[in-house]
From TrEMBL:
It comes from the Bacteria. This is alcohol dehydrogenase. Pfam families: ADH_N, ADH_zinc_N. Its cofactor is Zn(2+). InterPro entries: ADH-like_C (IPR013149), ADH-like_N (IPR013154), ADH_Zn_CS (IPR002328), ER (IPR020843), GroES-like_sf (IPR011032), NAD(P)-bd_dom_sf (IPR036291). The keyword Lipid biosynthesis does not apply. Residues 10-341 form the Enoyl reductase (ER) domain. It catalyses: a secondary alcohol + NAD(+) = a ketone + NADH + H(+); a primary alcohol + NAD(+) = an aldehyde + NADH + H(+). Belongs to the zinc-containing alcohol dehydrogenase family. The lineage of its organism: Bacteria, Bacillati, Actinomycetota, Actinomycetes, Micromonosporales. Its EC number is 1.1.1.1. It is an enzyme of class 1 (oxidoreductase).
Length: 343
């Protein structure tokens, strides 16, 4: 089969590889869609990374089942849940499988297809049956990004619900794949006023289509504009889907007292924390979360919202042969919503 493989730092290409053989508890999935994520770019440019098939947002149809698999039939449309946790440890049984003890531990993360095990940018992917979610009537190709671009904002938002009350203000920084889904989830599940921030006018247009009440082009005056629009008090929640230094600075400058500061994007920005009143940039009561992926329950909620028609992914599709071009377009910031490879 053909697969889009990371072959050396900075280099991806289409290769012919064997169709994976499945174990008794695994399913072979014929890929229907594989989304591209900024984390794929981080992997692509990492100084050292094993050779692997990329793609951690995967949907498709059951092609064959291992001997022990029940509950699925050939042809069933499925989504691949990306957190391959143990399912047995204390966090897992508490519903915090994204921070599994046994598969991830204190500073790691559970295995994720396309970032360790082979991912979905190929004609087939093998997956343990217990990591599959039935898609039902959802369109298979455009559902693929729900595995990360849907899941990850849902987790960040679910962890900030106590601040997302009617009358509150939420700021979404970065209207890319995750950001445009985060806006829709906020609009569909809360009564907050939503301000979207991006450096691209085109992406702010997308933000207005997907639930932003106000949009701000990020420039030197963004923080002042948000503060002015909240009587100087700040935003009750800030979701930073970018994480570069200017967006981290913006987030810490505009968060309100008791606010929920949620960092999702891995852009390498930082801020100093000081345990005093004189030098800390943060108001009292702010809670900061380094939000990773999402739980199985978050994934279900995303799928249910999509089935209701309350959220949907804006996709730009590419054939597998055009996969390298898709990466080039993503890197150039020229993909509105999510790029999806359809093999
Ligand atoms: Zn991702
Ligand atoms: Zn676990």
């Amino acid at each position: 089969m053909r697969a889009l493989r990371l072959v050396s730092p900075g280099k991806i290409e289409i290769q012919d590889v064997p169709i994976p053989e499945i174990a008794p508890d695994e399913v072979l999935v014929r890929v229907g869609g594989a989304g591209l994520c900024h984390s794929d770019l981080h992997v692509l440019h990492a100084p050292e990374f094993p050779v692997l098939t990329l793609g951690h947002e995967t949907s498709g149809w059951v092609a064959s089942l291992g001997a022990d698999v029940t509950g699925f039939a050939e042809g069933d449309p499925v989504l691949v849940y990306l957190v391959w946790a143990c399912g047995r440890c204390r966090p897992c049984v508490e519903g915090r499988d994204n921070v599994c003890v046994n598969q991830g531990g204190r500073l790691g993360m559970p295995p994720c297809p396309g970032l360790g095990p082979d991912g979905g940018m190929a004609e087939f992917i093998k997956v343990k049956a217990r990591y599959l979610e039935p898609l039902g009537a959802l369109d298979v190709a455009s559902a693929a990004p729900l595995a990360d671009a849907g899941l990850t904002p849902m987790h960040a938002i679910n962890g900030a619900r106590h601040r997302l009350t009617p009358g509150a203000t939420a700021v979404v920084v970065g209207v890319g794949g995750l950001g445009h889904m985060g806006l829709q989830i906020l609009a569909a599940t809360t009564g907050v006023r939503i301000i979207a921030v991006d450096s691209s006018e085109q992406k702010l247009d997308l933000a207005r289509e997907h639930g932003a009440h106000e949009t701000l082009l990020s420039d030197g005056g963004t923080a002042e504009a948000i503060l002015a629009g909240t009587s100087g008090y700040g935003a009750d929640a800030v979701f930073d889907f970018v994480g570069i230094q200017p967006t981290v600075d913006l987030a810490t400058k505009v968060i309100a007292p008791d606010g929920a500061l949620r960092f999702v994007g891995l852009g390498g920005g930082s801020f100093p924390y000081a345990a005093d009143s004189l030098t800390t940039p943060l108001p009292w009561g702010v809670d900061v979360r380094r939000s990773y992926g999402g739980t199985r329950a978050d994934q279900r909620q995303v799928l249910d919202l999509a089935r209701l028609g309350a959220i949907s992914v804006e996709t730009k599709t590419y054939s597998l042969d055009d996969g390298v071009q898709a990466f080039t377009d993503l890197e150039a910031g020229q993909v509105p919503g999510r790029a999806v490879i359809v093999p």
